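Subject: Predicted fold for Large ribosomal subunit protein bL31B, 86 residues

User T.R. writes:
Posting the sequence so we have a shared reference for the thread.
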Amino acid sequence: MKKGIHPDSYRMVAFKDMSNGDTFITRSTVNTRESIDIDGTEYPLVKLEISSSSHPFYTGKMKLVDTAGRVDKFRNRYKKHYEGKK
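User M.O. replies:
I've generated the structure tokens; pasting them so everyone works from the same file.
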């Protein structure tokens, strides 16, 4: 690695998938105010709505957990198009 081009805040960070509770630790420069204690070590915490452990493409499940209701809004908006094709 070249010296002087990498950020100083590159550290271990915990990412938590809020839809299923899975937590993984990796290196990141993301800023966060929250922290979590894992195995006696405190890590900065970043909360995610969806990750590879809950995404339908990676899990093989066709159900998508949509906390913001975007899928329902889309279906309601284009309801006429769905009814016409059935």
